[in-house]
Amino acid sequence: MKASKRSDIAPFIVMEVLEAANARAAAGADVMHLELGEPGGGPPPSALRAARTALAEASLGYSEAFGLPDLRRRIARHYLERYGVDLPPARIALTVGASGAFILAFLAAFDAGDRVALAEPGYPAYRNILKALGIEVVSLPVGFAERFQPAPELLERAAPLDGLIIASPANPTGTMLDDEELARLARWCRDNGVRLVSDEIYHGITYGRPADTVLRHDDRAVVVNSFSKFFCMTGWRLGWIVLPEDLRLPALRLAQNLFIAPPTISQHAALGAFDDLPLLDARVDGYRRNRDRILTALAEAGLARVAPPDGAFYIYVDIGGLGSDAAAISRRMLEEIGVATTPGNDFDPVRGHRFLRISFAAEEPTVEEACRRLVPWLRSRLAEAATELPAGG
User: Domains of the chain (ranges plus CATH)?
Assistant: First the structure.
């Protein structure tokens, strides 16, 4: 029997790193989990209280295909309070995580054979979901010169396009588009008939300036967000999508048939989570301290070439001085000092072998201990790599 060609996509390497880290832990060794973008503090107490109340009092049957009306109204209020955007709740759909939102958005907006651009390095699931759906991925190589973000000039060279995916703050780099850069991209997409999809899953987790939603620049864009990152509810698998009016009914038909409805208990918990916004904002201060710890540790070790971490909770660091096999370096780091990181190959198949992504989403004592181990280990590996250089190299 054959397997579908749609499944012929790259693995999600970070999940393989997690498996190796868990095997090490199961064998009795300790692990510092800096591979996953998973907040270490757990769900906010208000979310847990709301879930317990729902378990005791709610029927917990199917919600509507787009989710509980009360939660959709609360998310719309969130857009008004945070961004000044007056959003009809009818345009908001709750989904099975941001992953479900991407599947829904891509199916509603693009046909097989359409050309959709995205920056590399970037979140690998964009590329892999698009490929599984028969959509052509148009890679936009970006680096330090572009602050790891796309610009209209890159799009001009890649045209013609049917879609563009952006993320600000981005995974794996943490870089952000400023308001003018976001406005320029939105304007270019609008002028060229290109559907803009904005991944805003790391909104709320920024350092210095808040993230801007693309909805302030283009009401026809698609926005994806989730309760996993800022709201610290990864395992509850609940995201949302803001749909332009022309995609609302197509997406509704797809949601009804593909997913029936998002998980009801998670929706009740998410509604409660909005009562703990001050606590969640305070956790961002902890991420900032973790970010500064890792930046200091990398600089002390001799690795200071990093993408500007404006937001999210990742450091994307150039490890070229250690060699050109990030996967091997990541494995060795886990085996020798118990620090799990993600090789850049996950995010950029062409140039990622020179980079590691280090997550600082864990609780502060974990990151502090990881940094204590990293500095001497990296110094030693850099010295080792220097002695292996060929003469004159």
Answer: 5-42+278-384 (3.90.1150.10), 45-275 (3.40.640.10)
